[in-house]
Amino acid sequence: MRYSQMFIPTVKEVPSDAEVVSHQLMIRAGMIRKLTSGVYSYLPLGYRVIRKIESIVREEMNRAGAEEVFLPAVQPAELWMESGRWTFYGKELLRFKDRHNRDCCIGPTHEEVITDIVRNEIQTYRQLPKNLYQIQTKFRDEIRPRFGVMRCREFGMKDAYSFDADEEGASASYRAMFDAYIRIFGRCGFDFRPVEADSGSIGGSYSHEFMVVADSGEDALVFCTSCGYAANLEKAEIAKPEEVISGSAALLPREDVPTPDVRTIEEVSSFLGVTPQDIVKTLIFLADGKPVAALVRGDEDINEVKLKNYLNCDVLELAGDDVIQSVTGSPRGFAGPVNIRCDIIADYSLMGMKNFVVGANRKDYHSIHCNMDRDFQLRDCTDLRIIRPSDNCPHCKGSLRFARGIEVGHVFKLGTKYSKAMHATFLDRDGKEKVLIMGCYGIGIGRTMAAAIEQSHDGNGIIWPMPLAPYHVIITPVNMKDEGIAAAAERLYRDLQERNVEVIIDDRDERAGVKFNDADLIGIPIRITVGSKTLARGAVELKPRKTGMMVEVPVDEAADYVTRAIRDELERYHAQS
Ligand code: ATP
Ligand code: MG
Predict the structure, then answer these.
(1) Nearest atom within ligand 1 for CA of residue 210
(2) What lines the ligand 1 site, CB under 6 Å?
(3) pLDDT above 70: residue 205
(4) Could you give the CA distance from residue 110 to residue 137 in angstroms, rounded to a whole number?
(5) pLDDT, tens digit, for every residue of 446-500?
(6) Which domains does the chain have, with CATH numbers?
(7) What is the bridge-based pairing of β-strands 280-287 and 316-318?
């Protein structure tokens, strides 16, 4: 393409709401524009990158045996009522009524629609397994859209759904998708990790998120420096302590002490002259409306994801003042486990603790010298806290490292959650009617593009990895008014086009500096500079965007040289994955 005819509205100013570099650069490079909060248009250069990502995804999904479909964005409420999500999905689901007053939504995901199709069409085990995917627009009314297309409201997603007759088949489908994701993100040139992720009440480690490692990532991940263990921070398990040294101290009589207006752990520890490790925190939650107390040592924090999974509930929320009052008999800030009117679950961090401080369930009082078993009974003691860098790997006891990550993909073994609720069954080999076993697998296309920029940029702009670059080469004639330069540049442009190379010629009547800056900003992997000095030697200058290491190539050989370089680079990404 000719730069002069292209629509590349680059800008110098960074928009004030662009907090992360990918958002800034996508705007500055003229790749996206905001329409309204969390809703973006892709302009030509940006959309080419999207198409590149989509075709890598498509190739690998097809290679893994999945078949492409295209499902509607608008979905009827009835299906969501069948699955139960019309109630549970909350405000992220954009709901509306059509002219007949029928409730509808714009799909944030497609489990209901695909399950409906499959239950109508699949009758026997002979038709299984099936894996259907689409690349399609989703809408999620995110509470805080931010970071440009990384967390927006309208976005393109590849979503796949697998249907199997048995557990073994479902595991094989999951594995096939897991492997396809490894290839997809490898081909995108990412430094990434699959991490164990929360799979809600389904349990087990049947969910992996694919995280691109980047400081700007919204997710925290933890990985072991010795074995391959890697997990989302909220999921990371903590092994049950093997040995607990509780010391020989005698159990002292429990005593209520006045602590006027002293509520937080910091206030209690400084008021009573104890450390946070001497205190036990009592948090009251509502699990599907039923109160439950969770205990953790004062210097640790409850991981609500773990608690929710342990309780196997649909909704877990911190209790309000009225519930606290009715369960503990006191206002907020003085809750403790003694004589509390609900079940108590403790974190492992309480093991071995003696004579500790708790809220006294009485306004302005705490109890000292409280002890488990003697003063209160636990329903269970389990892993409920958030992991820390000082913890050991739950598998091999190795040391852990924390990092930030951008979740670009997610594979999930759904089991029978939707098929059961929506009666998606089949006739098995043994003549019995059984429920289909499902998996779902998503990739955020726009977020993948943003993640690529987060991982690959410099002070001058984007550095596209070859497989995602909107164009592979940009020819920069330093002066279009110089006939010799213009002619050589045009010839090279034609030669590259004949070789099907994705090439831009910057034929604008601009200063060389402006052209160089724009080429760097939009991140084209190879720049060919055509100038009089090198031309006098019969050569042009090649500059890879990534290394900046210039090489001079004879002008007649430049087209072949560049074609080969691109092919080699693309093959390298392919081979690596
Ligand atoms: P997150 O925790 O980041 O909200 P999620 O768990 O809700 O993600 P999934 O439902 O698993 O995401 O969706 C699959 C993929 O879709 C994600 O891995 C991500 O790449 C992409 N995605 C999800 N939400 C958004 C969004 N608001 N903007 C852009 N991409 C998104
Ligand atoms: Mg989300």
Answers:
(1) 18
(2) 109, 140, 142, 151-152, 155, 157, 407-410, 442-444, 446-447
(3) no
(4) 11
(5) 999 999 999 999 999 999 999 999 999 999 999 999 999 999 999 999 999 999 9
(6) 48-237+401-454 (3.30.930.10), 255-382 (3.90.960.10), 471-576 (3.40.50.800)
(7) antiparallel
